[in-house]
Structures are given as C-alpha cells and as structure tokens.
Amino acid sequence: MKELFSFLSLLFLTFLLVVVEANNVTYDRRSLQINGERKLIISAAIHYPRSVPEMWPGLVRLAKEGGANTIETYVFWDGHEIAPDKYNFDGRWDLVKFVKIVQDAGLYLILRIGPYVAAEWNFGGVPAWLHYVPGTIFRTDNEPFKYYMEKFTAHIVNMMKHEKFFASQGGHIILSQVENEYGTYEEEYGEAGRLYASWAAKMALRQNTGVPWIMCKQWDVPTDVINTCNGFYCDDFHPRHPHMPKMWTENWVGWFKTYGSIVPHRSVEDIAYSVARFIQKGGSLVNYYMYHGGTNFGRTSGGPFITTSYDYDAPIDEFGLPRLPKWGHLKELHKALKLCENALLNNEPVTLGLGLLQEVDVYGYGSETCAAFISNMDTGDDKIVYFHGKSFHVPAWSVSILPDCKNVVFNTAEVGSQSSLVEMVTLDLKPSGLSPKNDLKWEVFTEKTGIWDDADDVQQGFVDHIDTTKDATDYLWYTTRLHVDSTEEFLKDGRKPMLLIESQGHALHTFVNNVHHGSAAGTDTLSPFTFEVPVTLKAGENEIALLSMTVGLQTASSAFYEFAGAGLTSVKVDGFNNGTWDLSTSKWVYKIGVQGEHLGLHMIDGPYNVNWKPTTVTPKDQPLTWYKAVVDPPPGSDPVALDMVHMGKGQAWLNGELIGRYWTMKTSAFLECDPKCDYRGEYEPAKCSTGCGEPTQRWYHIPRSWFRPSGNVLVVFEETGGDPSQIKFATRRLSGVCIYLSEEYPTIEMYSETKGEDVNHKSSFIMQLECPPKTRISRVKFASFGTPVGTCGSFAIGDCHDPSTASLVEQACWNKTNCSMELTGENFDKDLCPGIRKSLAVEAMCS
Q1: pLDDT over 60 (residue 168)
Q2: Is 336 contained in some domain?
Q3: Residue 145: closest CA among 191, 110, 192, 184
Q4: Where is 5: in which H helix or E strand?
Q5: 400 in a domain, yes or no?
Q6: What pTM was computed for the model?
Q7: Which of 83, 306, 539, 608 is most buried by its number of CB atoms within 10 A?
Q8: Cα–Cα separations (whole angstroms), residue 451 to 511, 571, 594
Q9: Residues belonging to the active site
Q10: Contacts 24+ apart (CB under 8 A), 600-605
Q11: Could you check whether the bond before residue 634 is cis, i.e. omega within 30 degrees of 0?
Q12: Which 3 state secondary structure label does DSSP give 588?
C-alpha cells in the first residue's frame, strides 16, 4: 500500500509538472504560442473597479459569448495602495476575485499592471500621496518614483504568483504590461525619459513571471519586451523587432465623454473593418478598449472633467447590457476570424492588388488550408473585384473574409445582427415604510459658506488648490474680507461693482456676504478660465468666499502632468471710486472641504449630532445643500440609474457608496451632431456624435448590489441649486428588437460588370430575432420586404414593399422568445420588383 501511495503521489506530481509546462507562452513574428499552439487572441477590456463584483461574472460571460477568448484589465494603483504600504483589495477592488472569475470562465487574461494606466483615471492611476513624497517626479528617472513603482509592481506580481495565475504556473495570465503609452511623452523628459523606459522594462523582467511583457506605444523597447499598438487603426503598425508578433492592445471602440461635450459614437462597421484590416495585414492579437466601459464611481474619474459614465459606446453598455448590433456584429466577425486561424497563423501572407484601393491578402496560397481577406479601402464606392476566377462585390470601406479562399462568410459593412431598442423607464422615489400618501420626505442640511470651522491655513495671496487638499476632497474655500467706505459712489447710485476672477480650474462658486453670486467652470483643456459677475457690497466689512472645486486630476496630457495646478490666480473688484482693487495679495483664509463631508453626512448610518431638518416642501435652487431620503429599491431586476436632469452639480451617495460626481451641464446647441453619420472613412471622436443642446450625462448608474431590500439612504450634495423633488430612479431595459437584412446582389443588375459571372456573396441570409430572458415578442411593430428605409425605431416602407411581410413575420415570431426565417423564395416573394436588391426590415416589441 505504501508503494502504491508513493506511485500515485509521484504520478500526481508529474501531472502538476505537465500542467505547468503545458502553459508555456512563447512567440515569434506571427503570433503568441501557448503550449506550442498558435493562438489568435480576441481580447475584451473590462476594468474591474468600473463595475462591481456582482456584475463581473455576467460581463465575462457576455464577452465570451461575443467571441472573446481573453479578458484584459489595468491594475489601478491608487485604488489599491491608498497610503504607503496600506493596501485595499476589498469590494470592487478585489483583483484576485476578478482574475479568478476570468479563469473559471476558461478565458486567458492580459494583466496591464502599469502601474501608470492613463485610462481617463484620476492622476492616471498613480496615487496622489506619491506626489508629496519629497523629491518625487512621476514617470522619469527618479529614485523615489521608481522605488514605489517597483514595490507595487512586485506586490501585484507576487499576489498573482501566490494564486498560481500566471500561465507559467498553470494559470491563465498570458501577458503582462509595464508602463503605458510612455513613448508619446518620453522625449519631453529628455535623457531621463529614455533611462526610465529602459529601467521599467528591465524591472518588469526581473519579476520572473514566466510570461512575456509588453509596452504599448513604446518605440524603443529592448529585444525581450514586445511593443504594441494603440489607436483607432493599427493595420500599418509594425513591432520594433522582427521576431515580435503584431499586437493591438487598444482598439478604441468609441471615446470617453467630458462634461459639456457631445457624446461620441463609433459605428460597428468601422470597428469591424479596422479589426479585419489588422488581421489581414498580419495582426494576431486585438484587444477592444473598451468592451465594457463601466462607471467612474466615487472620485476616480480624471481628465479633468471626465464624466462619471465611462460607457465608451462599448459592445457591453455601462449597465452591463449588450449593445446591439455592435456586440452581435463583432461576434459574427470573431466566428469568421476563428475559421481562418490555422491558415492565418501558420503562413505568410501573399498580397495581390485588385485595384487602386482594393487588395487581397492570402494565407496558405495554393494550399488546402487557405484563407483570404479582400479589402476595399475606397471611402465612397462599392467595387466588383476578381479573385481566383470569381467576382466579388465588396462595399466601400469594408473587408470580406473568405476562410476557404472561395466563399465570403462575412463582410464588415454588412450588418446582419439584430439591433435593440433600449429605454430608460423613470420611477418616482418610493419612501421606505408606511406613508399615508406614499410621499417621499426629504431631510435638509445647509452648508455654512466660507470658513465653517477653524481655518486650515492663512496666507497673503493664493495657495494651490491641489497641493492644499492633496486630493482628499474636491473642495477648498478661499475667503477674504473687503472693507467698503461709505463714500463709495456705487452705494448711492445703485451700480454694482464687478467681481473679476481668474482661476486655473476646475470650477468655482462665488458667495458675497453669504449670498450666492454665480458659478463658473473651465473646459477639458489646461487653459485657465475667467469669471465676471456683478456683486452687492455694503458699507463696512464684506466677506468674499469662493469655493474652488476640482473635477478629477490630470490623466496625462503631457510630461510632468502631476504639477498642473488648480485654484485661484487673480481676484479683483472693479467699480470703486479709485478704480479696481486687486485682492490677489490680500490675506486669504483657507478651509479644506465642506462641512457636510467633515460631519460624514454621506455615511450610511450618519452622525447623530447633525441637525438634519425634515421638510414638507423641498427647497429648490438652493446652493450648498445636502438632501437625505430613505427609499425602497426600484422593483424588478433591471439595471438602475439615478435621473439627475433637474439638478445642477454635486455628488450623490447610496448607503454610503459614492455614486460619483453629477453635473447636468448642457452641451452647446450650436455644435455639430451627426447621429446618422457615414461610417466610411477614418474615424475620429467628433465624427459621429449626439447630444447637442442636452446634458452630457443625465443618468448615473447605481449597481443593484448596493441596494438593501428597504431602508436605503440616498444622500445628495447639491452645489448650485436644483429641484431634488424631481430626482427619480430609472431602470434600463430592452423594449424591442430590430433586424435589417439584404438579399444577394442580383446578377441581372451586375451582368455587364461581371461579364455574366455570378457575384459571390454570403451564403446565409437568415432573420434572427431574440428578446431578453423572461420576455416574448408581443407585437410586430414594422415589417417590410422590399426597399424599406430608416433605422431601428424609425423604419418606413420604401418604393418596393411586399404587403404580406408583417403577417409572415408574425406567424413565425409572435409570442416567442426567439425566432428565425430564411430570406428564400419559399418565405418571400423573390419576383417582387425585379432587378432590385431587396431587404427585410423588422421591428418587434418585447414584453
């Protein structure tokens, strides 16, 4: 028995060794190789602190169902090391839990440790406390910074090693990243920048993870670290060294939002085109940034002026729902690419010109294993091209994928996946407990303006806002006193002096003698702003109290970004008998934060010594006011948001969790929005946008897991004045689905161009509709086979229409969760409108 036990133990140890060896990650110029097998990596970026643990399994599952075989995330230094050697890995910061969820889903992981991440995150993820360690300069050949950076990097690596997460240990982490897009700013740091980049690479290699390290947008990487591409397009990118694979760590599927800006969108046709072109030109790893953008909870958003929403127009929306057709069309793209994997990664491409802006890249030319990509880079015209004795119709700005070099299974411009109609359903806040009229009762606490307690500092002149608060709060009071002589003419003739303010940012509220006299803000640039407002002054002593605010710290718009200041730079009053008085060098008294923060009004239980005042009539347009209500959660299981459209600017908490900053700043109605933009041609963030004249952000995501069954404490700190009685919950739900499919290109129309040959096209034209779980197709709102026009939610009948379409679709789909129909002559009248390429458009409601 003892011998048998020894044999089994030896066998078990041998098995473990095989597992470790079986996850060896190597690479050459064509691809990564995992266990000696070449892999085409389709990666989905999901940032764990931009959602909550209860959402993670669903997000990872949707990414996997969408065709991803890898998840990518940054590691956010400031959220984990909240003070030197004081770490936080709880709640949405539970990195190990997130990594384990990815592993349990059977997916690989790319861990971008950084520790600098950018990501529109506060200070780019570098903790603010590090800026105040003596002698520290971020991201350069600086000993204090390198010491703390290496210590944190080693801490994360050792955590992953302890859990045996690296592929070299039998785990699923296949790549790690050090630094992030440093090559963009390296020259600004001079020789110290080059030395730092080299040090960062060598430091990473010293961690001995057993998997490759990458540096994105880094042009001077050493031979044992892979440089990668970030951008909207990377087909022309080539790694620095010839033995490295061509990898794309950030394909920007949309863009972030800043308060006051329009809402950017990127079409799925263009995203699919960019991916197919990248793979066509030798790429073997692509990561969607973002696949799920999520939410900048708390005060994590950077910029400054980055919104609380980090939706990014991603395939999975901020609330965790698939964005259709983006998610579905990319899923079909991934299926097509997977069919090409063997030919792609085991052959060198042969490129053939098919026209001025048309070409084909063939992998495995002349062999049984052959895949081809035909691209049409023309931004205006569809083309007929000839390849392997056949003609192919290729729409403008598209790529056709032929896994067998003969038949097209996917074209990036032909979207056959269903679209969805998503709506926000607003709900009144319901009080917890019994109420005769079910009316919500708010409690109110009004801030004191100016120095609400002992002063934190007194200076002749101004202090820097950020250096004073050290980002412990958004708020800093600047207060001074002004004596007005009774002989001043404006006291007699009714004129009002002008208060003239200059500030480095980010926002400002002005109070004179405890009266709010207006607010101002900068923009999403580093430029300072000016503010002029008439003020009422009295004879004698006057108090001028200015509440300066930050709206996220710099992410990295340049080198030395941590030294960008904020706060007042000039304060003057114009209109005195002897002209303008400059108060900039007067004695100023400073107070960090606002009183409600100090008292902990946002805490779930709240302090017992605070005089919250119950009110039957909720005050409106009252600045610097805290509101508290105890509410029930919205019914159901749909994602939840707070509707703040009737409020101004401030912060909101639920049960002590900071939802984030809210700001209903409207964009200019004179900006150019283009919701029906043409996807053809290179994308940039201003190209396809919505939201002109509307609040940049109205809805603020509250995770369902933050709610209690009852007794939820909602706290709002309103800075400028709004109408809290109009605050509502909103639930996000998919209410309808649409499909738009076109049949094959008719040979009659193309006869003269194709010389009588059939035009090759996709062989499968199937209408597929699917409602969310627990709902069914309750109504076919629109259905037309012919030449329907419009988009999902606004379809209309065109010049050619089969009137029997609606009844055919209803027979196939009514009262079903999902249904399908082929676009064949058995189902539809193919003789309708001869010589015209016909399409099917359907909109169905789900309930």
Answers
A1: yes
A2: no
A3: 192
A4: helix 2-22
A5: no
A6: 0.94
A7: 306
A8: 12, 18, 9
A9: 181, 250
A10: 601/445, 601/626, 601/628, 601/715, 601/717, 602/651, 602/653, 602/656, 602/658, 602/715, 602/717, 603/656, 604/655, 604/656, 604/713
A11: no
A12: strand
Q: d(Cα 595, Cα 451) in Å, to the nearest integer?
A: 9
End-to-end CA distance of the chain: 64
For residue 744, the model assigns a pLDDT of 64
| Segment 564-575 mean pLDDT | 96
Statement: residue 433 has pLDDT above 80: no
Q: Assess whether pLDDT exceeds 90 at residue 7.
A: no
C-alpha span between 410 and 797 (Å, rounded) = 27
Is residue 489 domain-resident? yes
Name the amino acid, one letter, at 27. Y
Determine the pLDDT at residue 192: 98
Q: What is the pLDDT of residue 837?
A: 86
Cα 64 from Cα 804, distance rounded (Å) = 38
Q: Mean pLDDT across the stretch 516-531? A: 85
Q: Which domain holds residue 769?
A: 734-846
DSSP bridge pairs for 287:
43
Strands 759-760 and 728-742: unpaired
Do 747 and 662 share a structural domain?
A: no
pLDDT for 747 beyond 50: no
Q: Average pLDDT in the 192-216 region?
A: 98
Q: Is the confidence at residue 11, as pLDDT, over 90? A: no
Decide which of 680, 709, 726 is a domain's last residue.
Answer: 726
Tokens of 411: 């074209």
The token duo for 625 is: 């006011």
Residue 362 neighbours by CB under 8 Å, 6+ apart = 349, 350, 351, 352, 370, 371, 372, 405
Same domain, 745 and 604: no
**Is 744 exposed, middle or buried (CB count within 10 Å of its CB: 0-12, 13-18, 19+)?**
middle
Count of residues making up the chain = 847
Is the domain of 636 the same as that of 752?
no
Distance CA 496, CA 230 (A): 54
The string of DSSP codes covering 198-227 is: HHHHHHHHTT--SS-EEEET-TT--TTSEE
- Are 62 and 92 contained in the same domain? yes
| Of the candidates 61, 91, 69, the residue with the CA atom closest to the CA atom of residue 79 | 91
Residue 544 has pLDDT above 80, yes or no: yes
Cα 833 to chain centroid distance, Å, stands at 45
Q: Which amino acid is at 297?
A: F
Which of 577, 593, 609 marks a domain boundary? 593
Cα–Cα distance between 505 and 304 in angstroms, integer? 9
Q: What is the DSSP string of 429-462?
A: --BSS--TT----EEEEEPPPS--SS-SEEEESP
**Which residue bears the tokens 């699919």?**
272
Looking at the structure, tell me whether residues 467 and 556 fall in a common domain. Answer: yes
Which are the contacts of 625, defined by CB distance < 8 A and separation ≥ 6? 444, 445, 446, 447, 619, 717, 718, 721
Residues 86/264, Cβ–Cβ less than 8 Å: no
The pair of three-digit structure tokens given for residue 796, joined into one six-digit string: 């209309």
